[in-house]
């Protein structure tokens, strides 16, 4: 009898688990335009794509994803680049931000975020495995993660992302 109860409880957990969802961790950020933001709260109200980079070597991959995602999804969709600088020494972060701002068009600076705390939590949410890769998260209007991928920009992942976005609308 006891074994039957345990089996019932375990089967209930499998039914409940798919209902749970994962949100991007609460993280303070500053845009290159100087706006203070908090993820995911600042992104709620509409679906968004967040492209994370955890190292200087991921910068080109993040930029390529940003360019291709915005082209694929069009102007009416929010796409954010996020540079996570927690591992960078604090005395060079200002120089890094200045360099990023200089290489980012003015109209995109509000969608380029810099994070200096919460790296471990973001890595977990992104499914981090390699420093030089870009990590994409599709967030729904409530800030919940609905899809993720990582690596270089490719047509298959872009198509999958576009299909997932259509499913959110």
Compact overview of the structure:
With 169 residues, the protein is of the alpha/beta class. It contains five helices and seven strands.
Structural account:
There is one protein chain. The protein is an alpha/beta fold. The protein has a single domain, classed as Glutaredoxin. Helices cover 39% and strands 23% of the residues. The chain has helices at 2-16, 59-73, 90-103, 119-126, 155-168; strands spanning 27-31, 36-39, 48-53, 78-84, 112-115, 134-139, 145-151. The chain has a seven-stranded mixed β-sheet, sandwiched between helices. It is globular and about 45 Å long. The termini are far apart.
Spell out the helices and strands N to C.
Answer: HEEEHEHEHEEH
CATH C-level name: Alpha Beta
CATH architecture, by name, is 3-Layer(aba) Sandwich
- Strand order across the biggest sheet? 2-1-5-4-3-6-7
Q: Percent range for helical residues?
A: 25-40%
Overall mean pLDDT: 88
Task: Report how far apart the termini are.
Answer: 47 Å
Number of domains: 1
Number of strands: 7
Largest sheet: 7 strands, mixed
Structural class given helices, strands, pairing? Answer: alpha/beta
Describe the secondary-structure layout.
Elements: H1 2-16, E1 27-31, E2 36-39, E3 48-53, H2 59-73, E4 78-84, H3 90-103, E5 112-115, H4 119-126, E6 134-139, E7 145-151, H5 155-168
Parallel strand pairs: 3-4, 4-5
Antiparallel strand pairs: 1-2, 1-5, 3-6, 6-7
Helix pairs in contact: 2-5
Tags for this model:
alpha/beta; 7-stranded mixed β-sheet; 169 residues; 7 strands; 5 helices; Glutaredoxin
């Amino acid at each position: 009898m006891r074994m039957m109860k345990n089996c019932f409880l375990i089967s209930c957990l499998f039914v409940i688990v798919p209902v749970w969802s994962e949100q991007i961790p609460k993280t303070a950020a500053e845009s290159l335009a100087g706006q203070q933001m908090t993820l995911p709260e600042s992104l709620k109200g509409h679906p968004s794509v967040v492209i994370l980079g955890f190292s200087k070597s991921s910068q080109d991959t993040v930029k390529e994803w940003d360019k291709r995602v915005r082209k694929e999804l069009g102007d009416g969709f929010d796409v954010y680049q996020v540079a996570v600088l927690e591992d960078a020494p604090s005395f060079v972060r200002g120089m890094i931000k200045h360099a990023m701002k200089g290489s980012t068009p003015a109209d995109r600076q509000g969608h380029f975020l810099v994070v200096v705390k919460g790296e471990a939590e973001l890595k977990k949410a992104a499914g981090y495995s390699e420093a030089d890769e870009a990590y994409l998260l599709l967030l729904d209007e409530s800030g919940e993660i609905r899809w993720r991928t990582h690596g270089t920009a490719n047509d298959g992942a872009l198509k999958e992302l576009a299909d997932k976005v259509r499913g959110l609308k």
